[in-house]
Specification:
Bound molecules: flavin mononucleotide
Strand order of the largest sheet: 1-10-9-8-7-4-3-2
CATH architecture of one domain: Alpha-Beta Barrel
CATH topology of one domain: TIM Barrel
CATH superfamily of one domain: Aldolase class I
Structural class: alpha/beta
Number of helices: 22
Length: 564
């Protein structure tokens, strides 16, 4: 799907957003609009297990499980986790196996089935492209998660937060159902012994399956040097890049050079952190720009720099199909509306050590008092890293766990300061937070968002009550209607004439009818993006422009500006 040609490369990638913020409803909506919808593949085993324990409202997960190619495995997952009608109030969720190098059969079955479920659901009802996003930092999850997503026919795998050297080989082997051994760093281990996480698809599924297509692979990186490094060697070369800057939501690459903090304790980024886009373009692989590219104007800039398009997160995290808890989403929208939302780059919140964007919402762990009141606890464990114990066995530790425990495992207490338990908090963000036994506390959320809110503010001006993913896609893609040759012939050749009947027939196709002044909201998007101008009494129509294969709004065009 990343091959050259009209419509083959999406101009827009909806960024993967974990945990379950870019869940299947969001990815499906974006893919149905013809762009790349991406589910987050992070922690999907716990997400599926908790959804099943909540009774699987709507039956979506069970529908996907019924389509899993090995029914006995799906049945085992269902038996283990599904609770008809949900849990008793106050009952904690059952634990799922934590990540480790040697994974049990139930752990791998759950991970494969969960990733299959998410991608399968995102692909229903349209033939648009669907991707899955993984974090290199959660590398022990990668083989089983990628394999599950591939069984559901995922089109693109995107990996960030690290240097994803091994993914191209891994995906090629999994497409042939071959056993894989992914090298994993073990702290304190010497270079002589290779540590791996293994998956044998045939042994797991108990049967040989026909080869499946290998998905395209996009590496998410911050620097052109990293893109050049990965592109140099064919065995680690991705099919393209997402170049993500420090304003993006979620984790950010650390600044290059010595870490300096501003007065607010945020890492300082400078010119050395800006990727050289001419060098990225010179590599010759397609690339998308991310981090503050969520407006039509920024998409235009990206295209002008030679990018295939942009990857956008924040605008979709705030859309109606986002997995964020509705109360958190509406708090965010309220604060964006009244101009009080602040997003801070926290250098220490994430146990990964990467800077992490935190929306400063009350009643979340962004509030130091709430952070201080939470007992330190690590029981989900995606960000644990393996380390070598004195006896030669491999142990696991996370700097967000209780400090004495971390120290007993050879960790440096200085590395624990300010760390948040992202696993529990991000699950709470999407309504899957743990409740502790015996009437204990419920885990608090900690919300991440990009620091550029311009796109969100512009969307609020158009859709005061919030917007759908399709509306965000339509708005962003207005950018591609800049030049006369992008516009349908009928309108170009007859500026000022009535809209052609074929277009007028579609006037109610999704954007609402024009009001008395000739505006229908979507036209205003086009006008603001600089693509069109609309006269007061003119007709606006919504149609689908087959030439660029995404829904757009067409208006009568002011001739002087757009037709030579
Ligand atoms: C809520 C949220 C969660 C995110 N989680 C991930 C993630 O799990 N993996 C990842 O590669 N990027 C993640 N991102 C980054 C997005 O995929 C995207 O690259 C970024 O948000 C683009 O910048 P923008 O927010 O300015 O549009 C996340 C972003 C947000 C807003």
């Amino acid at each position: 799907m990343l091959a050259p040609g009209p419509g083959a490369r999406p101009a827009l990638i909806q960024g993967g957003m974990g945990v379950a913020v870019s869940s299947w409803p969001l990815a499906r909506a974006v893919a149905a609009a013809g762009q790349l919808g991406v589910v987050s593949g992070t922690a999907l085993d716990v997400v599926l297990a908790r959804r099943l324990q909540d009774g699987d409202p709507g039956g979506h997960a069970r529908a996907a499980l019924a389509a899993f190619p090995v029914p006995e495995i799906a049945a085992r997952v269902l038996r283990r986790y599904f609770r008809a009608g949900g849990r008793e109030p106050g009952t904690p969720y059952a634990a799922v196996p934590q990540l480790r190098l040697r994974q049990s059969r139930p752990a791998q079955e759950l991970a494969v089935v969960a990733n299959f479920t998410e991608v399968w659901l995102a692909k229903q009802g349209h033939d648009g492209p669907v991707g899955v996003n993984f974090l290199e930092k959660v590398e022990m999850a990668a083989p089983a998660a990628a394999y599950g997503a591939m069984l559901a026919g995922v089109d693109v795998v995107l990996v960030g937060a690290g240097i994803p050297r091994e993914l191209p080989r891994l995906l090629s082997a999994l497409a042939r159902h071959e056993p894989v051994s992914l090298p994993v760093d073990v702290a304190g281990a010497d270079g002589d012994r290779r540590h791996t996480v293994d998956l044998d698809p045939a042994a797991l599924l108990g049967q040989a399956l026909p080869p499946m297509p290998r998905p395209a692979f996009l590496a998410i990186v911050a620097a052109h040097v990293l893109a050049e490094y990965l592109a140099r060697d064919p065995s680690i070369r991705p099919d393209g890049f997402v170049i993500e800057g420090p304003l993006a939501g979620g984790h950010n690459a650390p600044p290059r050079g010595r870490l300096t903090l501003d007065d607010d304790g945020q890492p300082g980024y400078g010119p050395r952190d800006e990727p050289d886009l001419a060098r990225v373009a010179a590599i010759g692989l397609p690339f998308w720009l991310a981090g503050s590219y969520g407006t039509p104007a920024r998409l235009r800039e990206a295209l002008a720099a030679g990018a295939a398009g942009v990857q956008v997160g924040t605008l979709f995290a705030l859309s109606q199909e986002s997995g964020l808890r509705p109360d958190l989403r509406s708090q965010l929208l309220d604060q964006i509306r009244d101009g009080t939302l602040r997003v801070r780059t926290d250098p220490s919140a994430s146990p990964t050590g990467f800077p992490f964007k935190v929306a400063q919402l009350p009643d979340t762990l962004a509030d130091p008092q709430r952070y201080g009141a939470r007992p330190r606890l690590c029981d989900v464990g995606y960000l644990r890293v393996p380390y070598l114990r004195p006896n030669g066995a491999v142990g696991y530790r996370c700097p967000a766990e209780p400090v004495p425990m971390y120290e007993r495992k050879g960790g440096d207490a200085a590395g624990t300061a300010g760390r948040s338990c992202l696993c529990n908090a991000l699950l709470a963000n999407v309504g899957l937070g743990q409740t502790r036994p015996g009437g204990g506390y419920a885990e608090d959320p900690l919300v991440t968002l990009g620091s550029d809110l311009d796109g969100a503010r512009a969307m609020l001006r158009r859709h005061a009550g919030g917007w759908s993913a399709a509306q965000a896609v339509t708005w962003l893609l207005q950018a591609r209607l800049r030049r006369p040759r992008d516009l349908p012939l009928a309108l170009r050749s007859e500026p000022g004439a009535a809209a052609p009947a074929a277009l007028a027939e579609n006037a109610d196709g999704g954007g609402g009818r024009p009001d008395a002044s000739g505006y229908n909201g979507k036209c205003c998007d086009a006008v603001d993006s600089g693509a069109m101008q609309v006269g007061q009494s003119r007709l606006c129509v919504l149609t689908s422009d087959l030439a660029v294969s995404f829904p757009i709004t067409l208006c009568r065009i002011t001739p002087a500006r757009y037709v030579r």
